[in-house]
Amino acid sequence: MKELILLVLVSFLVAVAAECPFSHGNDGGNGGANAPPKHDNSPGYSPPANNDTTPSPPASGTPAAPGASPALAPAASPALAPELAPAPAPSLNKTNNGSLSPDYYANICPNLESLVQGAVQGMMASSPIAAAATLRLFFHDCFITGCDASLLIQNPNNDDEQHSSENMFLRADGYKTIAAAKAAVDADPQCTNKVSCADIMALAARDSVTLSGGPTWKVELGRYDALGARASDVDLPLTTEDVPALMKRFSAHGLTVDDLVALSGGHTLGATSCVFVNSRIYPTADAFLDPGFASQLQGICPSNLDPNTFVFFDQSVTSFDNNYFLMVQQKKGVLFSDSALYFDSSSKGIVDKFAADQNAFFTQFVSSMVTLGRLGLKNAANGEIRAICTKPN
Fold first, then answer.
1. Active site includes 140?
2. Residue ranges at the known binding site for Ca(2+)
3. What CDD domains would the database entry show (predicted)?
4. Residue ranges of the binding site for substrate
5. Of the listed 24, 140, 163, 253, which one is catalytic?
């Protein structure tokens, strides 16, 4: 693949996917998990404190510093904490859509989709990482106890999903996007406290993809919010896992290898800390990396490990496209779990298909997102419509 036009990437911090396919891990900085969670009586979500930096977008057409690569340029961010072993979580078998319907709110909150999309668009205009961070939240939420907005809950003792070691560095930009969407929805008298936080997250994830140049789809709606959240429920895929290990997790949720590869394509909007790269390049580069690419990584990620330095997954930082698969195909997958997709017979052909045909990737991504959105559905008996997304009613 030809080298790309260099861009100035100083101070540009894209959303980080620190551990697994499709955005597992952090989104480029401390989401406030080390600060006391905020609990107020206002509607919507109170984003975690301590993460107010708004990065600047890259300046198109301007040469970067010598030796920099658009897909690999570093950016500053608060340090990451050492990765902790994940706690076991219950298996989530794929549910059928049950009472979900794209028209669920037609007579309850008829302007819902335009209200959410307007909020997402506004956040994306102010933060170039809002889309990636918001998309990431949806996967993290659904993959734990189902698509129930349990990730948004902030317990007084910090024993919640948001404060787990695997979620504590999700970017605040994603939480702020959900907060803005919730506020916009509740500002409409027809909609106040009638739309679940889980459905707002599902719509915001779709809009983040679409407004970044990706596909659109009808989002099934009618979810209920979880009644609580526990850190011990968090068990997300790891960057060090190969396809069989990843598929053990995905298949437990009723997801296929096509879902794994397509959802991994969410990395097209992401980046990762050198914390999750250095083991691949020191003391020597692993065999799954292109030697030239490994040298570029070594030029960015120091051997003495700087967790504040980041590597972009592909060259189109804020565009939702299939460039991630071109990188993987050329042995330029940044994480081991990325590279593994091209060295397993069950997933290699899918990577080739998506690299050659962006429409094929978009079609499967939509299907996979719909399937993901059906995980762990709650109902009126074991769920609720939260008035404040950060705490149960």
1. yes
2. 141, 146, 148, 150, 161, 268, 314, 321
3. secretory_peroxidase
4. 237
5. 140
Residue 188 in contact with residue 111, Cβ under 8 Å? yes
Distance CA 262, CA 267 (A): 10
* Residue corresponding to tokens 């990395």: 267
**Nearest partner of 236 among 16, 17, 19, judged by Cα:** 19
Helix (H, G, I), strand (E, B) or coil at 312: strand
Question: Quick check: pTM over 0.90?
Answer: no
Encoded tokens for 332:
């330029």
Known binding positions for heme b:
267
Residue showing tokens 């091209």? 342
| Distances in whole angstroms, Cα of residue 100 to Cα of each of 33, 223, 378 | 33, 7, 11
Strand partners, 20: 24
Distance, in Å, from the CA atom of 48 to the CA atom of 98, rounded to the nearest integer, reads 34
* Binding-site entries: 141, 146, 148, 150, 161, 237, 267-268, 314, 321
Distance from C-alpha of 6 to C-alpha of 58, rounded to nearest angstrom: 10
User: Residues with Cβ < 8 Å from 284, sequence gap 6 or more?
Assistant: none
Q: Which H/E stretch holds residue 207?
A: helix 197-210
pLDDT in tens, the chain (393 residues): 443 333 323 233 333 333 343 434 333 333 332 232 333 333 334 444 333 333 333 333 322 222 333 344 333 333 333 333 333 333 444 444 568 999 999 999 999 999 999 999 999 999 988 999 999 999 999 999 999 999 999 999 999 999 988 887 688 899 999 999 999 999 999 999 999 999 999 999 999 999 999 999 999 999 999 999 999 999 999 889 999 999 999 999 999 999 999 999 999 987 778 988 999 999 999 999 999 999 999 999 999 988 888 888 888 878 999 999 999 999 999 999 999 999 999 999 999 999 999 999 999 999 999 999 999 999 999 999 999 999 999
